[in-house]
Amino acid sequence: MPYEYRKLSLEDRKKILEERKARGYPLHQPPHPFREAGSYLITAANFEHAEVMTSPERRNEFEKRLLAGFYEIRAEIIGWVILLNHYHILVNVESLELVSNLTRQLHGLTAYEWNLQDGLTGKRKVWYRFADRMMRNEAHLYQTLNYIHYNPVKHGLVADVYDWPWSSLFMYVEDKGQAWLRNQWQKYKPSSDFGKGWDM
Hints:
The protein is an alpha+beta fold. The protein has 7 helices and 4 strands; from the N terminus they run H-H-E-H-E-E-H-E-H-H-H.
């Protein structure tokens, strides 16, 4: 993240840039090493973790737009969560390029509208670029889905996952039931360091 990078010493910055260059990654933005069809966790955060989506109304509207956008590109939506300053969405897509175009449009439009609403036009950067993780196998996918549903608790927003309405948890309750969710949690519980280094 750019704000973490700015806190590093010049020597540490140089090491990071050399490592990214050796891997063929862009020097100052998230790498996207996989572009092909597959299941991806897409994550994006408000710039410098500013809590821009604090109002329930804003989260409601953003959730609708996010899901509609992914349906429009014919993605299979596996899970999602919208928080105060970031979101995760787990999708199966034909190409990551479709995701890049979608997030560029969605982030640009919401940044413009929210800055207008908050009187911060020209004064605030709202989004940082999205990051992605390609799912390696079924276990990785279900661990990630469990992680998504647990995210509001992890970030201290609620004590119980069922108290946070901006997630796909309730879709699974309706389709599969709470017993199925409990079984999936026990079978595919994420490790304590799951998401470390990339969760926004």
